[in-house]
Design a protein that fits this description.
Elements lengths: L7 H10 L4 E4 L6 H14 L3 E7 L2 E6 L5 E5 L5 H17 L7 E7 L2 H12 L3 E5 L5 H10 L2 H8 L4 E4 L16
Parallel strand pairs: 1-2, 1-6, 2-5, 6-7
Antiparallel strand pairs: 3-4
């Protein structure tokens, strides 16, 4: 099951049905074991699963009193964020096709840590699951300036955050994690 939250009343009704959910933040092409772990914990907790993709090319302009978020693009290329969300929805639909779990997909906008935190507050989420970033110079520079989403979530809210490694293990004898 997926949703495309269009109106404030729809979102409020869906939020009520998704209380105590497990939230998993996904990007296109993320390793499948990130979603698999989120599904495992949602089943263990008897909770719905909310798959979120954060469009960092948009920012929140204002929020209605009932929680509906209005946004505007940073870049005029709106298709990039839409295409990424569609990719995430396709990947999740394919992976969860035979799973017996209630799930939905949402696209959030703005800063990933703040957007996920806000949704977790609205849903009184049980757990937040996110994957680590890929290793590489570009990712390490981005993390230097923006900070780790996992670390920012862990320090800015009270819910447990489960961080799933990418799967590329760094040998113990390798001193520098980002060699590229």
């Amino acid at each position: 099951m997926t949703d495309s939250t269009h109106s404030a009343s729809d979102e409020a009704a869906q939020n009520a049905a998704l209380q105590k959910a497990v939230i998993v933040g996904l990007q296109p092409g993320q390793p499948p074991h990130v979603l698999a772990e989120a599904v495992r914990y949602a089943k263990l907790l008897g909770a719905p699963l909310v798959v979120v993709h954060v469009d960092v090319t948009r920012f929140v302009t204002y929020e209605d009193p009932d929680g509906y978020v209005h946004s505007a693009p940073i870049d005029l290329n709106l298709e990039a964020g839409v295409a990424e969300f569609e990719d995430v929805q396709r990947e999740v639909s394919s992976a969860l096709g035979k799973e017996d779990i209630v799930w939905t997909a949402r696209q959030l906008v703005g800063d990933p840590a703040l957007a996920i935190k806000q949704l977790a507050n609205k849903l009184d989420a049980e757990l937040i699951v996110i994957g680590t970033r890929k290793r590489g110079l570009g990712e390490s520079i981005r993390e230097f300036f923006t900070g780790s989403v996992a670390a920012r979530l862990a320090h800015r809210q009270h819910r447990p955050v489960l961080v799933i490694p990418q799967g590329e293990q760094v040998p113990d004898e390798q001193k520098d994690i980002w060699t590229e």
